[in-house]
Design a protein that fits this description.
Layout lengths: L1 H12 L1 H20 L4 H29 L1 H7 L8 H8 L3 H4 L3 H6 L3 H18 L2 H4 L11 H14 L5 H25 L12 H11 L6 E3 L7 H8 L13 H13 L4 H10 L2 E7 L6 H5 L4 E6 L3 E6 L3
Parallel strand pairs: 1-2
Antiparallel strand pairs: 2-4, 3-4
Helix pairs in contact: 1-2, 1-3, 2-3, 2-8, 12-13
Protein name: Glycosyltransferase RgtA/B/C/D-like domain-containing protein
Keywords: Membrane, Transmembrane, Transmembrane helix
Length: 318
């Protein structure tokens, strides 16, 4: 029951991890059958799979397909298949030493060890295979951090048997230093690693705080150019029309919002859009590439706040 509960929990927020666990259970069951292990273990794993598959289908239809359809369409086109040498290099120096623990690991194979090994094997297999595209997700989700636990276990069990442990530790330290130096340099010097909303101009925060002083709970409209809905909802104390990416109908909502800001809607269509969604405030900031004159042309909007970083309009004449 605990294992099924864990799998159900993973289904709700991490389907990729769920699939990896299911794949490891299947591989483990097959290996147990061929190695003629205890039938009770095989029956136990089979029962988990038998209960889990209908549950997974149920969750996919009622939850995943409904709320994450927009994200799935985007992720399906994000497939990364680097050369095998790149995978070895990015895994790091731990690969130089993990082979030392193979003999000790395989000396007495338990069910847990087989499941762990099957999990790591499934992780890399799904990453390199096209299965992620058909599941409408990115294959990078199948690279699990748990893979490094197995590599670490193999490395530690292998190294501790060596007499010159201090020499090995020194070698590891020297191997890690150059990579870390280059990593720090890239993080400091690469401007693309910082999002425009990481350090917002003070004027934007002041504008959203101004909304909090206004009565009522009318919805705030932000552009789809930046994820400012997070900041706006916190400081304004009001609901925001464009909320978390991936929620139901997000793509359609982002599309009509962009048309509103670009002035592609007629006067009647734009006002109807605002009234239908109970939008009372429209914001436009200095970090978003939408022309201010397009929003200013709507006759039903009144400018109520402006500083060097943000302009806020209010819907009038309802």
């Amino acid at each position: 029951a605990a294992i099924i509960g864990l799998l159900s929990f993973l289904l709700s927020f991490s389907p990729a991890s769920f699939l990896l666990i299911v794949a490891s259970l299947i591989l483990t069951s097959i290996l147990l059958v061929f190695s003629k292990q205890s039938f009770s273990k095989i029956k136990f794993l089979g029962a988990i799979l038998f209960i889990t598959f209908p549950l997974a289908l149920f969750m996919k239809i009622l939850y995943i397909d409904k709320f994450f359809n927009g994200v799935s369409q985007t992720e399906a086109n994000w497939q990364i298949h680097p050369p095998l040498t790149f995978v070895f290099l990015t895994t790091g120096p731990i690969l130089l030493f993990c082979w030392l623990g193979f003999k000790n690991y395989f000396r007495s194979l338990t069910t847990i060890k087989i499941m762990f090994l099957s999990f790591v094997f499934s992780s890399y297999l799904m990453f390199f295979s096209p299965i992620a595209f058909y599941l409408k997700t990115t294959n990078t989700r199948f690279l699990s951090p748990l893979n490094y636990i197995l590599l670490a276990v193999l490395t530690v069990t292998g190294i501790k048997r060596l007499r010159s442990l201090s020499i090995v530790c020194l070698m590891l330290l020297l191997l890690f230093i150059p990579g870390n130096i280059e990593g720090f340099k890239s993080q400091i010097n690469d401007p693309n690693l910082v999002s425009p909303i990481s350090y917002l101009p003070k004027g934007i925060i002041d504008g959203f705080k101004y909304l909090d002083t206004l009565p009522g709970k009318q919805t705030v409209l932000t552009t789809p150019a930046q994820f400012l809905w997070m900041i706006a909802s916190i400081y304004s104390g009001k609901p925001v029309y464009l909320n978390r990416l991936g929620l139901y109908n997000y793509d359609q909502k982002a599309d009509i919002t962009a048309k509103f800001y670009w002035g592609s809607l007629s006067e009647h269509q734009a006002k109807e859009f605002l009234e239908k969604n109970q939008i009372g405030f429209i914001t436009l900031t200095s970090i978003e590439n939408y022309p201010l004159d397009k929003v200013s042309q709507y006759g039903f909007l009144k400018k109520i706040y402006q500083n060097q970083d943000v302009v806020i309009f209010q819907l009038v004449g309802r």
